[in-house]
Amino acid sequence: MAPMIEEEVEGRIKDVIQDLYEIQSSVHGYLGPQTQQVLIRRIHNLTSSLQQLSASSAPLPTAIPPEIIAYIEDGRNPDIYTREFVELVQKSNMYLKGKSEAFREFRNVLAEEIITGGVGSREEVEKILGTSVEEGSLANGESGKEDSKD
User: CA angle at residue 76 from 9 to 46, to 5 degrees?
Assistant: First the structure.
């Protein structure tokens, strides 16, 4: 059903464009009272075409965020809004990535401190972390194991 509606709306848009072209031609060749009725008739045709376009496009989804509408009403370019929005999302993503990495590093440092400070706590820390604490995986490259090599 949607493709038929889209095709109908596309045809109505073409009608509006054609009416605008005819009005442009009439205005360009305007000779006064002799061509005034022709121009009026074409403006009425445009009004009718716009009404038909509005009626046929009503079932189509047109969810436009109010921020974009306000942006356009202020006379600004919506492409700039899109670019600014993408830049804001990228900035937020970088912030959250840095925050996530900081927590990961803190987790590793905390796990290392718990392991080095507590007797028999290594298994519990490994269980909480969900991974085995391997050599070099913690913050300072230490695993909490004593090397028996001399």
Answer: 30
Give the Cα separation of 51 and 80 in Å (integer): 31
115: its two tokens: 């392991």
| Element at 129 (helix H, strand E) | helix 122-129
C-beta separation of 5 from 56 below 8 A? yes
Residue 145's pLDDT band (cuts 50, 70, 90):
very low
Residue 98 three-state SS: helix
Q: Give the pLDDT band (50/70/90) at residue 124.
A: confident
Tokens of 136: 């070099």
The Cα 22–Cα 26 span in angstroms is 6
Our CA angle for 47, 50, 54, nearest 5°, is 140
Cβ neighbours of 143 (radius 10 Å)? 18
Condensed to tens digits (0 to 9), the pLDDT of residues 37-47 reads 999 999 999 99
